[in-house]
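Deliverable D4.2, example record:
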Amino acid sequence: MALSTSLSSCNVHRGAIVPKAAKCYKECSYSSLVFKQSVLSKSTYGSNDVAQFGFFPTMKPLQWQENKKILLRGRSGCHALDVEKPCSFLAGEKFQLDDVIEAQQFDIDILNAIFQVAREMENVEKNSVKSQILKGYLMATLFYEPSTRTRLSFESAMKRLGGEVLTTENAREFSSAAKGETLEDTIRTVEGYSDIIVMRHFESGAARRAAATADIPIINAGDGPGQHPTQALLDVYTIEREIGQLDGIKVGLVGDLANGRTVRSLAYLLAKYRDVKIYFVSPDVVKMKDDIKDYLTSKGIEWEESTDLMEVASKCDVVYQTRIQRERFGERVDLYDEARGKYIVDRNVLDVMQKHAVVMHPLPRLDEITVDVDADPRAAYFRQAKNGLYIRMALLKLLLVGW
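Output generated by the structure prediction step:
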């Protein structure tokens, strides 16, 4: 079923009876402010309950089934329900997403609302009185790949909100995965100890598998060369804070664009905004893949490939540098050596950049940004890393207790 409405939240009125184990998704048309929504519930509600659900923008029902972007939990049948309610994210309402798996899940309304919560989290972090918003909740971090900023910022976020943390670092070597345990079995076990799982994995698509298995929220903290949605959220949040706008900006994505999950997720989110132009600057062996280019084209986003970093830097509001990822090349050291060191942001690049522009980097860096850039006020990458704390505090709060 479908309905036409200028409203974007998925809420079912009292009296609706909904089946167990499903999710909600919608197809959005911003030009006409018409939303076609099919709503599927995740829980069973009585006839007097108010059910609230999460949605997955940009996916038609059939595409959602075929591509398995986000898999349903449970085995119950799916039934569409007509819903119509004003777009409002009221305190205490359930968050619209059950998991955070990929950047395509978010629409403009939810992005703006998350950023508002993140700004509130800045005040929480600065408050000398410890927050108890997540007191009694426990987060498990499962990291099958190395991490510093993502793992520590999630753990800091949870503790700053009064929650507790179970953590494993290098789970690929030191967990039962080393004994051959499947990811699904690990997830089923760990969800019995925790209320939410934050997972980084070396395989693209692992986060979808985890979300399909678990009955508690899963946050994708990076899945191989696939996506890193929370990094993209903090990147867009940083751009808004630094530049003051997201519509009409020009962004240069530089470095390892073939293997960089951060730039892939960022491209998906930037496509939500108007009149954005994206430049791709990379060595030939790590050029941006066609699926991202095709997606941007389908959304009307202008993009351009270039080999001239100086020219691109002079035009852009954001120069988003990334490292060449040695771990993605396997034994092809020759290709890694060919790519590394070709594009470096240094004082010469700063000299051609506009005064309001910023340099960003998901970190860690090697030599792709010289250390003398750090002192320039346009070097935003450490402020960017700090913003990750606020975004992750916001997501944990929203997934566990709602708006």
